[in-house]
Amino acid sequence: MTLRADAQRNLDRLLDVAGECFAERGLDCSIDEIARRARIGHGTVFRRFATKDELVTAVLARQLALLTARATEAAAADDAWDGFERFLRAAGEQYSANLALIGAFERSIGSLAKDELTGAVSGLVRRAQRAGVLRRDVVAEDVMRLVPAAAQYPDVVLDGLRAR
C-alpha cells in the first residue's frame, strides 16, 4: 500500500526520531517523547504501530536494511578483503552509534530483515573465502557476533579473521 506523500513524510520522520531516541536513551524512551520530538500526536504513533515493540521492530528493520545494503555493496568491491573490511568497520560504527537496538536485534530471530542481512553477509563471507583472504572456518553468524568487538577493536578482529 502506497502512502500519501505527507503520510510518508510523517512516517519517515517518526522512524528517524524513534531511532535517534532509542540510540540516545535506550529502548526505555517513551512513545510520548518520540511523538513530541517528531511533532506528531501520540495517537498518530499508535495508529501506525499498535505497540511500542512494533515501532522498535520497524526502526530495527531500517537499521538492518542499511547493513544489508552495505554488505551487498561490500561483496561487489574490486578487492574482496577491502570490501569485507569496509563492511565490518561500518557495522561496528553503526553498532557503536546505536547500542539500544542491538538488544532488539537479538529479539528479531527469524525476521525477514535479519534473514536478508544474514544472506548478504553470507555472500560477502563466501566471496572473501573464495579469494583466499578470509579464514575458511568463518560463517556469517560469526561475523555478526563479532560486530560488537569490531566496534572497539576493529584491527584485532580483522587480523583474527584474515586467512594466513
Can you walk me through this structure?
This protein has helices at 5-25, 31-38, 42-48, 52-75, 80-97, 100-107, 112-130, 140-152, 154-161. It has 164 residues and is an all-alpha fold. The chain contains nine helices and no strands. The model has no long low-confidence stretch (mean pLDDT 90). The protein folds into two domains: 1-50, Homeodomain-like (Arc Repressor Mutant, subunit A); 60-164, Orthogonal Bundle (Tetracycline Repressor, domain 2), CATH 1.10.357.10.
- Helical segment count: 9
Say how many strands there are. Answer: 0
Distance between the first and last residues' Cα? 50 Å
Known CATH architecture of the largest domain: Orthogonal Bundle
CATH superfamily of the largest domain: Tetracycline Repressor, domain 2
User: Can you tell me the residue ranges where pLDDT is under 50 for at least 5 consecutive residues?
Assistant: none
CATH class of the largest domain: Mainly Alpha
Shape annotation: elongated
Biggest beta-sheet profile: none
Instruction: Provide mean pLDDT, rounded.
Output: 90
Work out the count of structural domains: 2
Radius of gyration: 18 Å
Q: Structural class of the helix and strand makeup?
A: mainly alpha
| Percentage of residues in strands | under 5%
Q: H/E element string?
A: HHHHHHHHH
- Helical residues, percent: over 70%
CATH topology category name of the largest domain: Tetracycline Repressor, domain 2
